[in-house]
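TASK: fixed-backbone design
INPUT:
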């Protein structure tokens, strides 16, 4: 890596051309980050105040004494003072207002619990930039982008709020988060049980790390979603990759694909064809994540149960030509990218939501958030691609000048050995591919798993909807029951006597 100015062109080139490990990371980055694009109910107006808290850049060393302003949002309309509970959202890798607007569950239960809502932004995302515009300038400035530093931010912020806000000194805190935010929620309770009374970790893949779960399970679940949503749907997607290879082998075939899929930028060569397949792969994964039972907006509008709609175009029984098959694939893709018919063309870079958000998570994945994924083309509907840690490490080193620590998350957070902890709910949707790395069984009486068979990615955290399946309604009711139990436990706990 060059010294001095960050080489954005080289970084973009690596992300664009790599069909291996960093493609998977970039994909995951976009999947996690774009959760903020989900629409929320306009029937439930929300009001909050925005504040900024002076945080240390480095909580664990003493040489770097710089500070930055961490943004957080507060809604205390229903808070019952003194001692009313605090529901604390552990911010994801994105602008905190996205998650504030989309975590309807806490807004709907705040009045019933008499709770204050606090949404804390994760460092290096949104407006919480430790070094301002230089935060992403090079690896030296990115060095403080870790989950441990973020958790320490949350702990310091909460301690300050409880000590300075009248009536909050005895307020029990429950952490809530979804996806990476859910991982942080669980880890927050594990690392700071003196601050957090309990945690709801929704769709939190805390075991999606080396040696903990099979690397192919994520894509296997994506495939299962398509297999049960339409006849031969997964089988025909599996066949489509070879069809793309065949058709894209000629200049006329590349032009046909560009026209058939209404691409804004025509495919010109084999590298473009590889990028095109990556784009389609991501499309199918996105659909699995947001296969919600009602119309939703995930960067673009989607129908109810969108995979079922997609699979109507992919139900071929007999053998069809490559061109016929890919015509069906193009119609299916347009369900995701052009459901309203308002797009004149499809942009294969449309899924990128901002270079900083994607680069931020890519850096985290290149250091401590090492999440292996692989495909075999048999148990899943994708082209075979092995997980190659060395190649992944080399690409990270070329991009950032750092190498990942594959075992660090297990060491820092306990891996599968977490039975000593308590008061954490792990909720997972049966349709969500991230459940592959989630906790899907009870570990103890207070480390509990809630499964939502008809649920996609953290459906339980979204606003309630008339089309919600009974399983998610039951999950939310059970989560609320646990919240009440934890709040009661915290209030009954005796104060620790002061030392003489």
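OUTPUT:
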């Amino acid at each position: 890596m060059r010294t001095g100015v960050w080489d954005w062109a080289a970084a973009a080139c690596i992300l664009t051309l790599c069909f291996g490990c960093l493609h998977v990371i970039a994909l995951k980055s976009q999947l996690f980050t774009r959760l903020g694009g989900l629409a929320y109910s306009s029937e439930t107006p929300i009001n909050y105040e925005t504040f900024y808290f002076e945080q240390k850049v480095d909580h664990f060393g003493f040489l770097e004494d710089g500070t930055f302003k961490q943004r957080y949002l507060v809604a205390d309309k229903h808070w019952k003072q003194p001692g009313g509970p605090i529901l604390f959202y552990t911010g994801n890798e994105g602008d905190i207002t996205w998650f504030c607007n989309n975590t309807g569950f806490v807004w709907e239960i705040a009045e019933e619990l008499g709770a204050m809502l606090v949404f804390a932004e994760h460092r290096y995302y949104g407006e919480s930039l430790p070094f301002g515009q230089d935060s992403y300038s090079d690896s030296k400035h990115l060095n403080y982008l870790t989950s441990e530093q973020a958790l320490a931010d949350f702990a310091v912020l909460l301690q300050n709020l409880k000590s300075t806000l009248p009536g909050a000194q005895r307020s029990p805190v429950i952490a809530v988060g979804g996806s990476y935010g859910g991982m942080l929620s669980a880890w927050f309770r594990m690392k700071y049980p003196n601050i957090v009374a309990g945690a709801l970790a929704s769709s939190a893949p805390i075991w999606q790390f080396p040696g903990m779960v099979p690397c192919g399970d994520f894509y296997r679940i994506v495939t299962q979603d398509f297999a049960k949503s339409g006849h031969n749907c997964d089988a025909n997607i599996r066949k489509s990759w070879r069809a793309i290879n065949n058709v894209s082998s000629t200049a006329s075939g590349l032009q046909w694909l560009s026209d058939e899929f209404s691409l804004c930028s025509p495919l010109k060569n084999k590298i473009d064809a590889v990028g095109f397949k990556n784009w389609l792969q991501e499309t199918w994964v996105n659909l699995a994540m947001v296969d919600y039972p009602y119309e939703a907006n995930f960067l673009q509008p989607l129908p109810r149960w969108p995979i079922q709609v997609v699979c109507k175009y992919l139900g071929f029984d007999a053998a069809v030509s490559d061109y016929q098959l890919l015509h069906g694939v193009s119609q299916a893709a347009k369900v995701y990218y052009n459901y309203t018919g308002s797009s004149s063309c499809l942009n294969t870079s449309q899924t990128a939501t901002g270079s900083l958000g994607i680069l931020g998570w890519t850096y985290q994945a290149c250091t401590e958030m090492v999440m292996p994924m692989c495909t075999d083309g048999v148990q899943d509907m994708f082209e075979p691609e092995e997980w190659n840690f060395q190649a992944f490490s080399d690409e990270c080193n070329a991009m950032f000048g750092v190498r990942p620590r594959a075992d660090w998350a297990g060491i820092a957070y306990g891996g599968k050995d977490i039975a000593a902890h308590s008061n954490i709910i792990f909720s997972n949707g049966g349709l969500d591919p991230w459940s592959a790395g989630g906790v899907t069984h009870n570990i103890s009486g207070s480390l509990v798993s809630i499964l939502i068979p008809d649920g996609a990615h953290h459906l339980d955290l979204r606003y309630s909807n008339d089309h919600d399946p009974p399983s998610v309604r039951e999950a939310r009711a059970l989560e609320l029951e646990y919240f009440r139990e934890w709040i009661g436990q915290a209030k009954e706990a005796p104060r620790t006597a002061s030392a003489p």
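COMMENT: The CA atoms of residues 19 and 274 lie 7 Å apart.
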